[in-house]
Amino acid sequence: MVICFFLFVTLGFFLLSLAFSFMQELHSFYAKKSVFAHGPSSYPFLGCLISFYKNRRRLLDWYTDLLSESPSQTIVVRRLGARRTVVTANPANVEYMLKTNFNNFPKGKPFTEILGDLLGCGIFNVDGELWSTQRKLASHEFSTKSLREFVVKTLQEEVENRLLPLLQEAMESEKVLDLQDVLRRFAFDTICKVSLGHDPCCLDLSKPVPPLVKAFDIASEISAMRGMAPMFVVWKIKRALNIGSEKKLKEAIKLVQDCVLEIIRNKKRALEAETKCRDDAEDLLSRLLSAGHDEEVVRDMVISFIMAGRDTTSSAMSWLFWLLSKHQNAQNMIVKEVESMLCNGEKELNFEVLKEMNCVKACLCESMRLYPPVAWDSKHALNDDVLPDGTFVEKGDRVTYFPYGMGRMEELWGKDRFEFKPDRWFQESDAENGLLKSVSPFKFPVFQAGPRVCLGKEMAFIQMKYVVASILRRFEIRPVCQEQPVFVPLLTAHMAGGLNVLVRRRAS
């Protein structure tokens, strides 16, 4: 009996040693193979799941490091439970996906499943004819002069009557403000007024946060976690069983949809009682309803607009204010431009004045280069394809372009790529006159590019310029903590823990 036991233990150790040696050989083989394929170390069946898990708290920098090591700035990622993924920071590949062979790279079912519960059939979550129809409709509405004027009028009311008084009160009371939270509230008020003609009054800090805002926060965060899950099957099982985070998501989405539908129905009744024609309507909801579109179609469209506009601008501005606190020269450049253009208060911040603020725009672009509001975006290949850098794409592959990593590629931005340098956006031959360079949107795809380029791009710049100019000509923003904030990439990136600041009066 003792001899049998001894033999059994010896055999067990031998088999364990053999298995360990085999795994080491496999690791060596796939490590060498992955170097050739330009991607993380992979194993049979598991793919790069082990590396992915180890780097789960620094995925953006992990991908950036891998892309920097790849001669083509493209990597291939394989992991258990997920489609083969091609990640690229190569502008030629980005142009091929977003423009040249646009039809072969739709969002695809794997992506639309992730956001489908929240965005439904809204413009940001559909492909093909449904997307094309909504795109034409939205494009017409966004291009009207009346909507542009309504946006500037809304900004003026929100900034002058709410944002600036709130900052003034914080300055006088020497209270610490979470500027990121304030800007998110401001953005939500603004986008709701423009999209829905509805005022949620988020900037009134004496009132509780409206349920609609809380529900949007929950729904967007859990939807984002779906996309970042190591194995998609987990959230799908939780959704089928209606448990955990998926149950919470379902409740939040119902609240969002019910609130928006109630606003739509109230607006419909108000429009029926009026004699305004469609061209006289101000907010987007009135325009869409006046055109005779169904409630559910309108609901999904305006939810998409709110989702796109609420956190992108606030994220970009939060990072800009933090960067400007570290770069006084850039801040002074903005103040000087704003003061010279306003002619000592004789002009107001109208559309034409805002459009000409190139220093503010250069600072915003440089901030978004380093901290893009949307860190990455994915499409799915309809058919086998080959990217311009020679990377083979299989039918069904997820193909991700990566603005966060692109902003950190030496090949694109030079050795000073990690530095905040707004001057890189000006023409070198005419920098004194403040003329901006023409930079390829495929090198700087923070607003996407090609047929799906962001319709609200101009509106976003107008909003951000208005806020930045209005704040900096009156106040100095001083972060309480001097440490580097943590960049959190959910559906829209934000600073972990917010941006706590003290507000001071700007010296004249």
From TrEMBL:
<comment type="similarity">
    <text>Belongs to the cytochrome P450 family.</text>
</comment>
<dbReference type="Pfam" id="PF00067">
    <property type="entry name" value="p450"/>
</dbReference>
<dbReference type="InterPro" id="IPR001128">
    <property type="entry name" value="Cyt_P450"/>
</dbReference>
<feature type="binding site" description="axial binding residue">
    <location>
        <position position="454"/>
    </location>
    <ligand>
        <name>heme</name>
    </ligand>
</feature>
<feature type="signal peptide">
    <location>
        <begin position="1"/>
        <end position="19"/>
    </location>
</feature>
<keyword id="KW-1133">Transmembrane helix</keyword>
<keyword id="KW-0408">Iron</keyword>
<keyword id="KW-0349">Heme</keyword>
<keyword id="KW-0812">Transmembrane</keyword>
<dbReference type="GO" id="GO:0016020">
    <property type="term" value="C:membrane"/>
</dbReference>
<dbReference type="GO" id="GO:0004497">
    <property type="term" value="F:monooxygenase activity"/>
</dbReference>
<dbReference type="GO" id="GO:0005506">
    <property type="term" value="F:iron ion binding"/>
</dbReference>
<keyword id="KW-0732">Signal</keyword>
<keyword id="KW-0503">Monooxygenase</keyword>
<dbReference type="InterPro" id="IPR036396">
    <property type="entry name" value="Cyt_P450_sf"/>
</dbReference>
<keyword id="KW-0479">Metal-binding</keyword>
<dbReference type="GO" id="GO:0016705">
    <property type="term" value="F:oxidoreductase activity, acting on paired donors, with incorporation or reduction of molecular oxygen"/>
</dbReference>
<protein>
    <submittedName>
        <fullName>Cytochrome P450 94B3</fullName>
    </submittedName>
</protein>
<keyword id="KW-0472">Membrane</keyword>
<dbReference type="GO" id="GO:0020037">
    <property type="term" value="F:heme binding"/>
</dbReference>
<dbReference type="InterPro" id="IPR002403">
    <property type="entry name" value="Cyt_P450_E_grp-IV"/>
</dbReference>
<keyword id="KW-0560">Oxidoreductase</keyword>
